[in-house]
Structures are given as structure tokens and as C-alpha cells.
Fold:
Amino acid sequence: MGGKAAILLVLSFSLIFLVFGHRFNRLSTDSVDNLTDYYIQTKAHNIAVSAANLAANKLFLDKTWEEGFEEVSFDGGTYNVYVSNNFSASGKVIICHVPPGNPAAQKTMSLPAAALSGHLHHGDYLGPCGGLAYDDKIATIVAEGTYQGVTKVVTVDLRPSFFSKFGNYYANISAMPATGDTFNGPFHTNGKLTTYGTPVFWGKTTAKKGLKKLGSPKDPKFYGGFESGVDIPLEFDTTGMRSAASTGGMIFKDTTNTNQKTDVKLELISDGNVKYSKKIGAGPWSPTVEVPLTTIAPNGMLFVERGNVYIEGTLKGRLTVVASKMGKSGCGNIYQTDDVEYNSNPKTDPNSKDVLGLVAEDNIRLQYNPQTKKKDIITQASMFALNGNIGPDNQLVHNDGKLASWKILGGLIANTTRVTAHYSGSVPYEGYRFVHSYDDRFMTYAPPLFPNTKSLEIVSWYE
Structure:
């Protein structure tokens, strides 16, 4: 029995070694296969990422670019890039693009009609994916990287950024931020940022031409970070706003067809109504009309053609008011005649949807009158002065020795800065002191059709 037992023991161990040896060989083979598969998958992904970056750079330089790339050889594989871009002028067709070999990455796109046949040939179909609505305010990049038969997809959405996201924006700064000044929200100048002493910047701060520090100590506080070389030109197209006002809002203009100046008084009412009257040239003011804001401007756009706006009151709803010059001097200004505030203050009601944009082709002024003289004033809005600046009338800068507060919730976007007070040394003694709070909603929630930046920025990157 001892010999038989020994033979059985040897046979048993031999069988065990054969089974485990086979498993070890299988594991080694699987490890090599998994490594190879991982390598292929990673290469395809990296090719797609590289293609997406190349396309994004093209769109940063030219937001109307839509040609894409077709079967470009890269790093041992190939890539295709399709661009859905309604910022270009071409006629467009909405399709559902289904990447070959990766149908889960399908994306609704708006493409030139000339590109339609090629997309339908490889499985795309007309209409949005899943019947969902298409956002035509976004440019989309679909980058497909292919390596050894594996395709990976990177989808990038870009859109213009609204100027209302800035707490402060100035094409150039004539009055330097100094010790005692505090700035909330994103801050940008398209010139050089020169500071004196220790001003405080709570939001991300950017400047096209760098930073110059003066004073003692030379120590500005950038708690949101500082970045140089950022180019954001100050511009907007009034024709788009006028068109929106003509279709879903209201245009105030000279109806005599003699291109006379048109001035408009607006009083915002807390129940959602608005009172208005207008004056053509040197004529009298028209009778005041009161209507619901949603009736006079369903899309929230009021546009004054060749004129000025005088505004006050409490807003319930969403509204953008534009004062345009259209080549006529003495026009394109907005004058705040008393407090302008929201019916629901977003600082106490985070669900507030009340939002106001004041857009002037020239200046925005706090008007000198009995309601403003020597009085604290409230402005809740994002203010945009394309060719001028934002500040009080000259008489209010003097203000008879009174230093009042201008309490602003929102943003100041202007061509340059404006003196708001007179100083004794570094201490203001008359005029207005800015008490500025940033409306955090403006990072993602803009007034209707508010001016946006020239270039696009990435709002999502999906791999």
C-alpha cells in the first residue's frame, strides 16, 4: 500500500501542478491582453483629447470656425472632429451624430447642409437626439480618436461669456485701486492693472497687460487669484438687441422718421408693471402709460433708439434696458433718477429671479436731482457703459460737502473708471462712496440678451 500511496500522491501533485500551471499561463495571457487593450483604449482616448484641444484653440481664435477635421493621421491612429456652430453664418441642419463604434456618445449638432449626406451615410439621423430640444447658444466640438479599431469620443461645449459675470470690468483704468478699496466678484481690465498700497480683490482678477504695484507697502490682496495676458475686448452688437426688442420686446424711437433724439422715462413698479413716457426732440413728454412688463416686453428687452433713458423704481421680473446712439450725439446715456432695486432681494432670497441689465452706448449716470442730492442711493443691476463710464453727475461729486453711499448690488462694466468723490489726502469727504456687493447669480444667470464677450469659453468637457 505504501508504494501505491506514493504513486497516487505523485499523480495528485502532478495533476495539481498541471491545473495551476494552466491557470498561471492563462492569467499571464489575460494580463498581456488586458495591458494591450488598456494601451489601445488609452491611445484612442489621448488622440481624441488632442483633437478636442486643437479644435478648441481654433474656436478661441475664431468663434465662427466650423470646418472640423477629417481622417487626420495622428500618433499611429486617426481623428475626426465635427463642429456644431451657430455663431457662423452658414445655413444649418440639426442632426443626431452617432460616433461609429460608440453610440452611447451621441450628440445633437447643428451642421452645414453641405455636410449632411456624409453624416447620414455613417448612421447619423435628422433631428435632435432623443427628440430633446437643441441649445443654439452653444458651439459644440465632437472629437473622435481611433486607434486599432477602437474609437473614443470627447465632447466640448463652448459659449460666449456674458459681461454681467464681472463685478468690475474696465477696458482701461484711470483711477487706480488703492488701500481701503475692496472689489467683489470677478475683476478684469483689458489694460494694465496698477494698484496703490493694499486694495483687496475677492474674486478672480485678470488683466491683459499685467500688474504694476505702487505705494508702501506694494501689496494688493488677490484672494481669488491673479492672471495676466487675458484679452477680453469690450464690445457688443446693438443690432442683435434691437432685433430682439422688435420681435419680443419694445423699441422707443422717433416715429416722425426725422431721426430726432428720443428720451424715455421708466418707472419700475413692484407689482410687475412699468410706467413709461417719451419725448421726441424738443417736444413735450407724452402721457404716462402703465402696463405689465410681460406685456410690453415678453422677452425682457426695452431698446431706445437714438436717445437716453431715465430710470427708477422696483423691478419684479427680468429686464434689460438699452440706450443707443446710432451715430447721434447727446444720446446713448442712462440716468438713474432714484433708487433702482429688486422686488425680491437675492441677498435675502436666494430664489429671486428678478434681474436687471442697464446697457448704455455712452455713460451711466446717477442724476443730480432732489431725490439723489445728499442721499444714499441703491442700484441693483449689472451696468454696462460701452464707450464711457459709470458714476454720479458732476454736481453730485461736489454734493455740498456731503459724503453719501452708492449701494450697488451687481456689476460695473465700462470703458474706463470715473471719479465719484473729492478727497482730502486719501480720505473722501464729499460725493459718493461705492458700497459694492457682487450678485453671485451673475456667474450663471444673466439679464435678458445682455452683451457677451467676443470669444468663446469652455462650459463643459465630457470624456
In short: The first strand starts at residue 69 and ends at 74. The chain has a mean pLDDT of 88.
